[in-house]
Each structure stands twice: as structure tokens, then as C-alpha cells.
Amino acid sequence: MDETRIELLQRMPVFGGIQADVLDFLLSLCPIDTVRANEYFFRESDDADAMFVLEAGKVAVLKSWHGGDFLLHTLERGDCFGEMALIDLQPRSASVRAIEDCEAIRLSAANLYQVNERSVEQFAMIQMNLGREISRRLRAADERIFESRMGAPEAELQHVFQAS
Fold first, then answer.
1. Angle in degrees, CA 110, 114, 27, rounded to 5
2. Which residues pair with residue 71 across a beta bridge?
3. Residue 159 pLDDT exceeds 70
4. Which of 15, 24, 52, 130 could bond to 104 as cystine, CB 3.0-4.6 Å?
């Protein structure tokens, strides 16, 4: 049992409430990807079938626009990316490039289905947690879009709405 990796996963919202033996089984199925600084885990529009859990290093999440790449987020150890691939099976919506040398656990949809065969309840919990994480990220994106359109920080907007 790889306790360090299991603890890393258990601290993540996606794997909250998942039993250590199920995580150990899942980890036994998942390869570790090593990506050097300035190389890509994947590019926007690539086919997608896996998410990644960053064990070491930092990555940049980039969106292409008019021939350039624009930074959306930076992620560090313990963050995950590419999780939408496990839900919608659509092409990648952004690129992820290593800022530093990175190691990441690659978790595919096929790996999750093997968890389903072992424990339907734990599989359902992971799926529910994935949905919650994607929902949290969508709410944050909606808030950023709103603030961008309104041109005011959130605190000022609350003040304006409370005054009326």
C-alpha cells in the first residue's frame, strides 16, 4: 500500500470519503506520467480519456485564442486536471503545460470502471465527487465572467446590491 499517494488522494475533494483499500486498488491500475518543464501533458482539442493528479511540479492551464496561449490557472502538487474527460468524453477544452518537471498519476475512465466492478458504492462516490468538483469550478468561472463584465470587485457589487 502506497500510503503517501493514498493520503494525497484523500486530501482531494474528488476522492473525499473513498476508502484506502479502494484507492490502493485504483493506484495499482494507474501509471505515473513524467513530463519535463515546457512540455505538454495534453493540448486543447486532443482526444481525452483521463484526468491527472499532480504529485510533483507545477503546470499552466492554457487556452488558445487568435494563435496565442493565454493562462487560465496554475496548478501544484495535489491539484487535478483533465477531470472533465471522465464525465463528458469530449476533446480537451484547454492545454496543460509543465512549468516545472512534473509527475502525475494518470487516471483513465477504464480505471474507474474497474473500481465500479469492485465497489459500485465507491465508484458512485467518485463520480458524485467529480460532478461536485466540476460544479465548483463552473461556479468560480461564472463569477469571474460576471466580475469581468461588471468591471467591479465582488465586494463593491455586494455593496451596490445591498444598498438598493
1. 85
2. 62
3. no
4. 52
Nearest to 107 by CA among 52, 48, 65: 52
Per-residue pLDDT band at 153 (split at 50, 70, 90): low
CA angle 69, 137, 17 (to 5 degrees): 130
Burial of 42: CB neighbours in 10 Å, binned 0-12, 13-18, 19+: buried
CATH match for 3-163 among 3.40.50.300, 2.60.120.10, 1.10.3720.10, 3.30.565.10? 2.60.120.10
Report how far residue 53's alpha carbon sits from residue 56's, in angstroms, rounded to the nearest whole number. 9
Cell match 473500481: residue?
Answer: 115
Q: Please compute the mean of the pLDDT values over residues 46-57 and round it to a whole number.
A: 95
Buried b / exposed e along 118-141 (16+ C-beta atoms within 10 A): ebeebbebbbebbeebbeeeeeee
